[in-house]
């Protein structure tokens, strides 16, 4: 492992250290005193050379990727203060939530403010309504959390830093429809908009695609890997030893400590390969006996989303996942969105969980239905076709029958649902008993369809019964 210049000097004998320092110009000594990045950063934390678009730092926790991201963004903002039209450049820092962005990317010891302060750069920091840093030379750094599908839209960016992308919601949409199209500033001197992504690996579609591109030789994506232990000089030795004892040889250790992108997560109830194997297109869906919309209110799972998933039971007695409209919302807008999905899939029943103090949802759902009846969206006079379910079993027990349905090849995704599929393939019940809301909504819908099976019956005439045999008592 290559060390920083600072650590290399520290390992030299005292006399050689002194001789080297006496031989340096004053500006070098000033840079050392302020802990300049070239001095304290390891080579693995430095941006790759070349004409790349995405620099993906896929590493274990404690590697030092947060400071690498902050230092890179500040360096780029100082390098390109204006675009070719003379306008001040705009930059974006995006974390999983605005709280994460503020805590780690702005105000933490490895964040943007610390990087600016070390350089002696003057700036103005506005905390609300959303954090903004404006440099004295005019550049603006915007900060956001991934609040909804539209995050990242509308900017004219010279560059961006995307932190802990593996934790995001709406990952594909935020990247493909928000951030990437916003990276369009026309920079001088042969510059181009670029993005650095700093994250602990999770086997989600977007990260796996970038890794495949990098390994296939696509020079527009550069990959940096590394483990927690690469940064051992700056971490507690006692805690590192504790990490070794706790995580050595485990799946979570390979992912969280060693930064390995595991294609499938050990202990997850689903795999991407399983979902892909039985995926179908819309024209392959048979007639549907019944369509159920599963709803899981925000707050009952780890994602704080309103889980909204539609599942249909086909004439072939197999299940077809038709839509995933989940998003972060609550109250009346969430109830209306649930009924809008119901209309979109021509639903028969809407089922929702009323656990954990969510009994208020019944009235909200009924009110939203009545409101939409008055608007002519539903027939007048009828009762709302919805049913509350009160879960008794734990999350794993509830999800296992649905997962088994997939294993039997009897549950098909109609098209691709990246966010839900990533949650299915990464949720490990033994490590996190609180399943994500998209999974809960899927399980509610599929469980109701499965419960209807007990009411089905058939009459058959078994081959070889007494009716089809000669009289055994005949002489």
Pairing-aware structural class of the strands and helices? alpha/beta
- Contiguous low-pLDDT stretches (5 residues minimum) are 456-475
Mean pLDDT: 88
Shape: elongated
Just give the CATH class of the largest domain: Alpha Beta
CATH superfamily of the largest domain: P-loop containing nucleotide triphosphate hydrolases
Count of individual domains: 2
Q: Please, could you describe this protein's structure?
A:
The protein has 475 residues and is α/β, with parallel strands linked by helices. The protein has two domains: 42-256, 3-Layer(aba) Sandwich (Rossmann fold), CATH 3.40.50; 272-454, Nucleotidyltransferase, domain 5 (2-Layer Sandwich), CATH 3.30.420.280. The chain has helices at 5-10, 14-22, 26-33, 37-40, 65-79, 98-106, 112-119, 171-182, 205-215, 237-247, 251-256, 272-277, 331-344, 360-374, 395-407, 418-426, 437-451; strands at residues 54-59, 90-95, 123-126, 132-135, 140-145, 157-163, 194-199, 221-226, 288-296, 307-314, 319-324, 349-353, 386-389, 411-413. The protein starts with a helix and ends in a 24-residue tail after the last helix. Residues 456-475 have low confidence and may be disordered.
